[in-house]
Amino acid sequence: MTDAPNPLNCPECDNLLKTEKELKKGLLIECSACGTENEIISLDPLLLSPLEEEK
Ligand SMILES: [Zn+2]
């Protein structure tokens, strides 16, 4: 068991995202590199959708 529990890549910048939360639809994972919040829109296959944030 050497893999991270839930390896994911940010769709915006390809930074490796990590979460210790249980993956489920609708879970938001914030990218520590670019700050984009990504929502899990599908588990199988695993798909992330970046949330558009107005600044
Ligand atoms: Zn990112």
The number of helical segments is 0
Elements, N to C (H/E): EEEEE
Q: How many domains in all?
A: 1
Q: Please state roughly what percent of the residues sit in beta strands, choosing from under 5%, 5-15%, 15-25%, 25-35%, 35-45% or over 45%.
A: 25-35%
Query: Taking all residues together, what is the mean pLDDT?
Result: 86
Major β-sheet strand ordering? 3-4-5
* Count of individual beta strands: 5
**Which cofactors or ions or other ligands sit in this model?**
zinc ion
Polypeptide structure, described:
- With 55 residues, this protein is mostly beta strands.
- The chain has a single domain, classed as Rubrerythrin, domain 2, CATH 2.20.28.160.
- It contains no helices and five strands.
- A three-stranded antiparallel β-sheet has the order 3-4-5, with no helix packed on it.
- β3 (28-30) and β4 form a beta hairpin.
- It is globular.
- The chain starts with 7 loop residues before the first strand and ends in a 5-residue tail after the last strand.
- The structure holds zinc ion (ZN).
- Zinc ion binds at residues 10, 12-13, 15, 31, 33-34, 36.
Q: What structural keywords apply?
A:
55 residues, single chain, mainly beta, Rubrerythrin, domain 2, two-stranded antiparallel sheet, globular, binds zinc ion, three-stranded antiparallel β-sheet
Give a brief description.
By secondary structure, this protein is an all-beta fold.
What secondary-structure arrangement, pairings included, does this model have?
Layout: E1 8-9, E2 16-17, E3 28-30, E4 37-43, E5 46-50
Antiparallel strand pairs: 1-2, 3-4, 4-5
Bound molecules: zinc ion.
